[in-house]
Design brief:
The complex is a heterodimer of chains A (265) and B (291).
Chain A lengths: L6 H26 L5 H18 L4 H22 L5 H19 L5 H8 L8 H20 L1 H9 L1 H6 L4 H23 L1 H7 L2 H9 L3 H25 L4 H23 L1
Helix pairs in contact in A: 1-6, 1-9, 1-12, 2-3, 2-4, 2-9, 2-10, 3-4, 3-9, 6-9, 9-10, 10-13, 11-12, 11-13, 12-13
Chain B lengths: L1 H16 L13 E4 L2 H11 L4 E4 L14 H8 L3 E4 L8 H7 L6 E4 L18 H18 L4 H26 L6 E4 L5 H7 L2 E4 L11 H13 L4 E4 L6 H10 L2 E4 L8 H5 L4 H16 L1
Parallel strand pairs in B: 1-2, 1-3, 3-4, 5-6, 5-7, 7-8
Helix pairs in contact in B: 2-5, 5-6, 6-11
Classes of the chains: A mainly alpha (265), B alpha/beta (291).
């Protein structure tokens, strides 16, 4: 248990807790909007942003955030253009991100540098990143609480919300920007695999057993906490890669929950 | 609901209870971590048995794309020194050193003082003259951390310098007749080697081992290989050989291994290979290609 007295491990656990609270909060809305792959799409846009930033000697972290925000706006636009096929939006933006990254990385002289801007690992977090995650978490939680009703209404019935006076475009824009910033900052901190899967898997687990929307939110946060914290504890004793382990625990719990909830019905 | 929460708690407790073994190193020896195998090899030559040296990136892994686990981080946390090359070789180094602020670990950039021809190519150690500078940095870091063994470190350093000089001379004299010739490589890691011995490197792609070559570059290389009557294309064991294979089929040239000494496979390590032996076999293969 001595390992938990080490500073990097404590930071990892604190960040795991914050990330586990905010990503399922966003994820619940994302799933209702049929945009489950948005985490993947946006993190690949960050990849494109880093490549472009390095090419034109701009700050790669800044260009990654800008690319992520622009992509999120494009996703929102395509989603509204194809109301019945909203998964098209994430797929198109994902391809765009991968394509831009592949072409522009050809002009980046030191491609090893490239990977150092994308490198994220939950066990290698500096104090500055820890504070960034905490501030981000506070902003996300407050926004989600303030916009709770509007977001819920929009996710279930966008037209109805508009008719009853909800400022659909503004709320969607705020939510989209928030998602983009969370993905771009968190993927550099804990890795894009962890962030894109924590948006979805805990929500999917919760949907199997929850009886109301509110319950779904609470349960998804509990599931996310279970995955990240148990993942960190497991990798502390068995020498496994933290990011992949957290995701696989999530998938394992999902399968078990699915089997149990089916049996009961 | 309650039933599920119970099941979740059960799963969590299983994770917590699995395996609670602890390891502790009791030696007084300086504990040193190295960024990848080449640095491990140089540090071991100079430190001998007086330091405990652990290589971060396991054998057979491309050092560019590796991620630390909890155990690696815990090890680094108690390290005295971390030797790294820099120049983008260890993409994880900035994040890892940032997260180890406040521990005793001292990060030593071993490439300090090496003359950089091309800052997009981190493979400086393929020129033995650069290895001598890197070993000088390792020596002074070791002497500072552990002054009681200063003499042993210096002796080891001096005899290793003699081996490196011998290697350098072998390259110089045996490649002398081929000055100005080209070698075709799949991964442009050999700029420093070619520069040191008057060769020209023609590579399929950039300095990273896994990017896709453009058709334009492929056809240029086909011309170069045919016009200069080049018979061998160099590729690496740790990276993909698909593009090199295509080029070989197109031109009738054969594939030959060249080792950039970023990492070694378990097999090579158990065979007793090190920088010096790998460089001599590289020399043999280069000669074979140029004859």
């Amino acid at each position: 248990m001595e390992i938990f007295t080490l500073a990097f491990m404590q930071r990892a656990i604190v960040v795991a807790i914050f990330i586990s609270i905010i990503t399922p909060l966003i994820g619940n809305i994302i799933v209702l909007k049929r945009l489950s792959a948005i985490g993947d799409a946006l993190s690949h846009s960050c990849l494109a942003g880093v490549a472009v930033g390095l090419c034109f000697s701009l700050s790669p972290i800044l260009t990654a955030i800008i690319f992520s925000m622009l992509s999120a706006i494009v996703i929102e636009y395509i989603r509204r253009a194809f109301p019945n096929y909203s998964e098209l939006a994430t797929a198109i933006v994902l391809s765009f991100g991968v394509g831009v990254a592949a072409v522009f990385s050809g002009f980046v002289k030191n491609s090893a540098n490239f990977s150092s801007f994308l490198f994220g690992s939950i066990v290698a977090i500096s104090n500055a990143e820890l504070y960034a995650v905490i501030i981000l978490s506070v902003i996300v939680t407050i926004t989600m609480l303030v916009l709770y009703r509007e977001l819920l209404y929009i996710s279930f019935d966008e037209e109805g919300a508009e008719l009853s006076g909800v400022k659909v475009k503004t709320v969607n824009l705020v939510f989209t920007m928030l998602t983009a910033v969370v993905v771009s900052i968190a993927s550099r901190t804990v890795g894009s695999l962890v962030i894109s899967s924590l948006m979805i898997i805990p929500v999917a687990c919760a949907m199997l057993i929850s009886k109301s929307y509110k319950q779904n939110i609470v349960l998804s946060v509990i599931f996310a906490l279970l995955f990240t914290v148990s993942g960190l504890i497991l990798t502390a004793f068995k020498d496994l890669k933290p990011g992949g382990t957290i995701v696989l625990i999530g998938i394992g719990v999902f399968l078990v929950t699915a089997a149990l909830s089916r049996k009961q019905r | 609901m309650k039933k599920y929460i119970f099941v979740l708690c059960f799963i969590l407790s299983v994770f917590i209870l699995t395996g609670c073994k602890e390891e502790k190193t009791s030696e007084e020896k300086p504990l040193i971590f190295t960024g990848f195998y080449a640095l491990y090899d140089f540090a071991s030559e100079i430190a001998g048995d007086n330091a405990q040296i652990i290589n971060m990136v396991p054998a057979g892994t491309e050092p560019h794309d590796w991620e630390p686990g909890v155990k690696d981080m815990a090890g680094l946390n108690s390290a005295d020194m971390v030797f790294y090359n820099g120049m983008g070789m260890e993409s994880w180094i900035d994040k890892v050193s940032g997260s180890l602020e406040g521990t005793d670990a001292r990060f030593v950039k071993v490439s300090e003082g090496v003359k950089i021809n091309d800052d997009s190519d981190p493979h400086i150690w393929l020129d033995p003259e650069n290895v001598k500078i890197m070993c000088g940095n390792i020596l002074s870091a070791l002497c500072e951390a552990d002054p009681t063994h200063r003499e042993e470190y210096t002796d080891n350093y001096n005899s290793y310098m003699a081996e490196l000089d011998e290697l350098d001379n072998a390259f110089l004299s045996e490649l002398e007749p081929y000055k100005g010739s080209s070698i075709v490589v799949s991964h442009s890691a050999y700029g420093y080697l070619c520069n040191a011995y008057g060769l020209v490197q023609e590579s399929l792609d950039g300095a990273s081992a896994d990017s896709e070559p453009s058709p334009e570059r492929m056809s240029e290389l086909v011309d170069i290989i045919k016009n200069s009557n080049i018979k061998y294309i160099f590729c690496e064991e740790l990276a993909s050989q698909k593009a090199a294979n295509t080029l070989a089929e197109e031109t009738g040239a054969q594939l030959l291994y060249l080792n950039a000494f970023e990492g070694l496979t378990e097999e090579e390590i158990s065979r007793g290979d090190n920088y010096i032996t790998i460089m001599y076999s590289n020399l043999e293969n280069i000669k074979k290609a140029l004859i």
